[in-house]
Design brief:
The protein is built from 13 helices and 13 strands. It has helices at residues 3-15, 23-29, 39-43, 61-72, 78-89, 122-127, 133-144, 172-181, 194-204, 218-227, 242-247, 259-264, 275-291; strands at residues 18-20, 34-38, 49-55, 98-103, 107-112, 115-120, 148-154, 158-165, 185-189, 208-210, 232-236, 250-254, 267-269. It folds into two domains: 3-45 and 167-291, HAD superfamily/HAD-like (Rossmann fold, 3-Layer(aba) Sandwich); 49-165, Calcium-transporting ATPase, cytoplasmic domain N (3-Layer(aba) Sandwich). Helix 8 (172-181) runs parallel beside helix 13. The chain is elongated and about 70 Å long. The chain has 292 residues and is α/β, with parallel strands linked by helices. The model has no long low-confidence stretch (mean pLDDT 95). The structure holds adenosine-5'-diphosphate (ADP) and magnesium ion.
């Protein structure tokens, strides 16, 4: 591409709040055949809310919320924010927590009044050797509704579930449709529950879902796609997306995302709108075709 064409292209992008960091990035975008989308904060608003609270017989709903909120107070995860907002709405007490630990892609743990508690997904519960038979059907039902079930437990048993749900961004569905019309394979990559992800897959008509991926494994999924001959553009917002954005042939960061994601990407979408990712690729094709 000529320098002038590239300048025109990046200038056009800037009009849409699309920050293209280099001439090379604009040239690369046109080769994309597979678009990988992170779920939380990329396809969804990333502002989840608590929708349901179910506690076991040994505890009340409000006690369950107190335990969850006290633990999540020390976490920076979007799910934690949802739990804290609900605690605030219900004026639930926040207890001091000792020995707090965040387990990436799984949840959090800590002690209150000498008892150790956990809040997280089924993987965390499984890893701690706890039985969640009682809550399995309920968790599946919530996930089928597109909600993320959060298990709360002590060291002996699961005490209940708090369900959290995030809303789709208004343009996500249209963006997926446009990518498909351009002949691209659209893949959703998420650490969330497989059933929760599949509910969203159906709503959006996404071809492939890769779920329950640990934060440190997201980039390996990109490598796997590339090994299969794909030219991958990835869109993400989180700290856990940064290595995958770097690994992708083209990394696209959501402008409202974390600094690390923005630094790791070739392109930044200042309006945080997935339709601008469509525009990025269209722009690249237009620029490159004018040159040939
Ligand atoms: P995503 O790819 O959707 O951004 P993450 O890798 O950050 O997801 O988290 C994956 C899953 O790990 C979440 O869906 C949740 O089940 C669990 N998890 C992570 N952090 C927390 C937390 N602070 N509290 C409860 N669960 C958590
Ligand atoms: Mg995210």
């Amino acid at each position: 591409a000529t320098p002038v064409a590239i300048m025109v292209g990046t200038g056009k992008g800037a009009e849409y709040g699309i920050l293209i960091k280099s001439a090379e990035s604009l040239e690369k975008a046109q080769k994309t055949d597979t678009i990988v989308l992170d779920k939380t904060g990329t396809i969804t608003e990333g502002k989840p809310r608590v929708t349901d609270i179910f506690s076991s017989k040994s505890i009340s709903d409000s006690e369950l919320l107190i335990i969850a909120a006290s633990l999540e107070k020390l976490s920076e995860h979007p799910l934690a924010e949802a739990v804290l907002l609900e605690a605030e709405n219900q004026k639930a007490e926040i207890l001091p927590v000792k020995d707090f630990q965040a387990i990436p892609g799984q949840g959090v743990e800590g002690s209150m009044n000498g008892t150790k508690y956990l809040a997280g997904n089924h993987r965390l519960i499984n890893n701690r050797g706890l039985d969640f038979q009682h809550f399995n059907a309920l968790a599946d039902k919530l996930a089928d509704e597109g909600k993320t079930p959060l298990f709360i437990a002590n060291q002996k048993e699961v005490l209940g579930i708090i369900a959290v749900s995030d809303t789709l961004k208004t343009t996500s569905k249209e963006a997926v449709e446009r990518f498909r019309q351009m002949g691209m394979d659209v893949v959703m990559l998420t650490g969330d529950h497989a059933k929760t992800a599949m509910a969203m897959q159906q709503q959006l008509n996404i071809s492939t879902v890769i779920a329950e991926v640990l934060p440190q494994d997201k980039d390996k999924e990109i490598t796997r796609l590339q090994a299969a001959g794909r030219n991958v553009a990835m869109v993400g917002d989180g700290i856990n997306d940064a290595p995958a954005l770097m690994r992708s042939d083209l990394g696209i960061a959501i402008g409202a995302g974390t600094d690390v994601a923005i630094e790791s990407a070739d392109v930044v979408l200042m309006r945080s709108d997935l339709l601008d990712a469509v525009t990025t690729i269209r722009l690249s094709k237009a620029v490159m075709q004018n040159i040939k």
